[in-house]
Design brief:
alpha/beta; 10-stranded mixed β-sheet; disordered N terminus
């Protein structure tokens, strides 16, 4: 008989969850996993096949749409399954064994797939096979749908699959075979698969529990299993058509080809290993001959003398470095200042002597370690102290401007309101503002220097401002950065002058994003500050190696806020027109100084820029890094038409995703839903999308991608290089989407809603950034004289490098 329970779900649910049970204790966990589903349009059908009432079942089902079917027991697994199928009233159904469970997004992603793809008979997710109550994963079922493979192996756990009931009821109906004590679900999937396509929705969203001692019933050995397997085989033979056998033959041939290829690769690797072993043995023999030679014995005293000399190098370096360091510290702090600091130096003499005696680069590359070489605990901000002592110093704030807007007045007021310093001077270098920026600066008492727009460069404007400044220290900042607190400058200067830092030449502080900052920018600066090691702690960088990772992680300064003594800056200055702050920091640490990035002091600064900006900025970033660092490696582009086709295909996919985001109900725009979308998007990127009108929410980006595909068309039958380049770009785009998702997961809870425009902007801007980097990789090789695609690469460079 059927026992209805209170209905709180929708009156016409979309999915029935079917549970066969004999009343095992694990039933409660299975039911709870259904209750936790993000998808709400479901009802629960529980068939009691145990022959007696299930204790506590009404409490388990309280408040949900549920029906209990009790026919007295003894139906068995197949009979119980058929009884549940007969009771279904919804368009779709999913079986759930009473010792398994679903993860919260399982029904949602499968129901979405069936709603969006009417031609599908079923959709299924990945399932983690776990021992006992889930203490360890034994296996993951995550195989794309292959009808031929399904003939030979059941890779679909029963609760993985959501299926359409009209396909089950079509004549002849799909039924569970009561003669099968095992494999009855496999036989059911084989019947259903003949009605239409199944679709895998990647990502683990359900758990298959296995007894650690007994395993699954399907793994049982012996005559019983063999008999059931033979019964399934007989049913398959009755269903097979010539086309089924042909598919199996083709599948077996493909597997044999793959195995042969793997065997050949393994044999080649073994041959290479043997050749390498012979080379090593030959070299070792040569070394033994050298050690046995007369010349080696004769030169032994010379080598011993060299060893003594190496041991003397550290004291000699110390003897040379100590007078120079004392002179520099005297210049920096004066004689009395040096004497006041002597107790501190003496207390930490071991660290200072070791530093002075060390050789630059000895520490190796710090990137890859858990933290950079020198980290400081975050000190208390001066605004939180009762009465921070005033520092007897004048700081000149240098700001390049161009149409800074009305908010510039707020920034000037914040700078004028700084406390704890003898004096603050503001120097503005304006390159042609027409919106009243100059008037705002003059009204605030700033020194204003005007230059023509054609005269502007990031280095020139700042160097010019420094030459017109009169302070003891220079603070370089930008027109849209806002100090936090009244002692922001005081905090930075106190860190710069702290003797605990040794030879600290300059300090910068990390950013705190504005409330209107876009998700893409927030993710970028989060990654940047994690790389620098200053997301949560102050980082003091020094010269630890000349590889680009060491130089970038240790030498980074930021012109959003960069404080440096004016006399020291006069010796070094800014150079170049891009990343001038990083260039300055690297030159300083190579000269033996230290530079700091502070987490203890922050500045409010961020951007909300269009996708077109990220295309150009990513392109220029790659070009700059390769030009600055000789050891910077990058992937080579083997086919410009293939890359253009890959970008155009990804843009077409992204256009559809943006349409889906725009149409999605507000309650679906959650971080967890976003994570599910990205899993699906990654799978979609594997299939090239047909060309069409792009809808990326940025007209310039849409136009450029369309023109790129037109100028560099892919032939009707693209070669392997072109296909591979398109696939590589899809992988790059998907990887960057995953990075943004990881950031969002740290910021938002799975149930938190994300702003619609944030999601849309993330997609289009991530696509633009990936395209900019990929086009730069191509141009780095092809812009060289005589390269096959030199003209095309130079045209791309002219489009993307201008004005950044």
């Amino acid at each position: 008989m059927n026992q209805p329970f209170p209905v709180s779900a929708p009156a016409s649910p979309f999915v029935s969850v079917l549970i066969r049970t004999t009343g095992r204790a694990s039933l409660r966990a299975a039911v709870e996993s259904v209750k936790r589903q993000q998808f709400a349009s479901w009802e629960l059908l529980v068939l009691n096949d145990g022959g007696r009432p299930i204790e506590g079942l009404p409490a388990m089902l309280e408040g949900v749409s549920a029906r209990v079917i009790d026919q007295g027991g003894g139906l068995g697994r197949a009979g119980a399954a058929n009884a549940l199928l007969d009771a279904v009233r919804t368009p779709c159904a999913l079986f759930l064994d009473d010792d398994d469970w679903l993860l919260p997004g399982h029904l949602q992603k499968l129901a979405d797939a069936l709603r969006q793809r009417p031609e599908l008979v079923a959709a299924y997710g990945d399932v983690a096979c776990m021992a006992g109550a889930g203490e360890r994963v034994l296996h993951t079922f995550a195989q794309n749908f292959d009808p031929a493979a399904l003939q030979l192996q059941n890779y679909l756990p029963i609760h993985a699959v959501l299926f359409r009931m009209d396909a089950v009821r079509a004549q002849p109906p799909c039924r569970f075979d009561a003669t099968l004590e095992l494999f009855e679900d496999w036989d059911f999937w084989l019947q259903l698969a003949r009605r239409g396509a199944f679709e895998r929705i990647p990502g683990v969203s359900a758990v298959y529990a296995i007894d650690p001692q007994q395993g699954s019933g399907h793994a049982a050995q012996g005559q019983r299993r063999d008999a059931m397997l033979q019964a399934v085989a007989e049913r398959q033979l009755a269903r097979w058509q010539p086309a089924d056998v042909a598919r199996l033959i083709q599948r077996d041939a493909g597997r044999n080809d793959a195995l042969n290829d793997a065997a050949q690769q393994l044999a080649a690797a073994r041959r290479e290993a043997l050749d390498l072993r012979r080379q090593v043995q030959s070299l070792m023999g040569q070394v033994d001959q050298i050690h046995a030679s007369t010349s080696w014995r004769i030169t032994r005293p010379v080598r011993a003398a060299g060893g003594y000399a190496r041991r003397l190098r550290a004291p000699l370096r110390l003897a040379r470095a100590l007078p120079v360091t004392l002179l520099n510290e005297t210049k920096r702090h004066g004689v009395l200042g040096l004497l006041r600091r002597l107790p501190y130096y003496l207390r930490h003499r071991e660290a200072y002597l070791a530093r002075l005696a060390s050789r630059p680069g000895q520490a190796g590359n710090p990137f890859g370690a858990a933290q950079p070489a020198v980290l400081r605990e975050v000190p208390l901000h001066p605004d939180l102290e009762d009465a921070p002592a005033t520092i007897d110093a004048k700081v000149s704030v240098v700001i390049p401007t161009l149409n800074a807007g009305p908010e510039f007045a707020w920034m000037l007021r914040k700078l004028r309101g700084q406390r704890g310093l003898r004096e603050v001077e503001i120097v503005v270098v304006d390159s042609g503002s027409t919106d009243g920026t100059v008037v705002l600066a003059q009204d605030a008492g700033a020194t204003v220097i005007r230059i023509a727009p054609s005269e502007f460069s990031h280095s020139h404007a700042r160097n010019l401002g420094a030459r017109n400044a009169t302070g003891d220290y220079l603070l370089f900042t930008v027109q849209d950065a806002f100090p936090i607190g009244q002692h922001w400058l005081h905090a930075m200067l106190r860190q710069l002058r702290d003797p605990a830092h040794g030879r600290l030449a300059a300090v910068s502080c990390s950013e705190f994003s504005r409330s209107d900052s876009d998700l893409m920018y927030d993710a970028m600066i989060d990654t940047h500050y994690r790389f620098l090691g200053c997301l949560e702690q102050d980082r003091v960088g020094s010269h630890t190696g000349d590889d680009h990772m060491s130089l970038r992680s240790q030498g980074q300064l930021s012109d959003v806020a960069c404080l440096i003594p004016r006399e020291l800056f006069a010796q070094h200055g800014y150079q170049g027109d891009y990343a001038e702050d990083l260039d300055l920091g690297i030159r300083l640490i190579r000269a033996g100084w230290q530079v700091a990035m502070l987490a203890s002091v922050k500045v409010v600064h961020s951007h909300n820029r269009p996708a077109w900006y990220y295309l150009k900025r990513s392109y220029v970033d790659v070009v700059f890094l390769v030009g600055m660092f000789e050891d910077f490696t990058y992937p080579r582009c083997a086919s410009l038409p293939g890359l253009a086709a890959g970008i155009a295909s990804a843009a077409a996919h992204a256009s559809r995703w943006l349409d889906a985001i725009a149409a999605a109900p507000e309650h679906e725009l959650t971080q967890a839903r976003f994570a599910e979308w990205i899993v699906r998007w990654r799978a979609e990127l594997e299939t090239p999308a047909a060309a069409g009108a792009l809808r990326l929410r940025d007209a310039r980006l849409e136009t450029y991608i369309a023109q790129l595909a037109e100028r560099h068309p892919q032939p009707a039958a693209p070669d392997a290089a072109a296909r591979n380049e398109a696939r590589l770009f899809a992988d790059m785009f998907a990887g960057r989407l995953d990075n943004v998702l990881q950031f969002a997961a740290r910021v938002y809870d799975g149930r938190d809603r994300l702003p619609r425009e944030e999601l849309a902007g993330m997609v289009s801007k991530t696509l633009a950034a990936a395209a900019g980097s990929a086009l730069a990789f191509h141009g780095l090789d092809q812009r060289k004289p005589g390269a096959p695609n030199e003209a095309a690469a130079r045209a791309i460079h002219q489009d993307l490098a201008a004005g950044v």
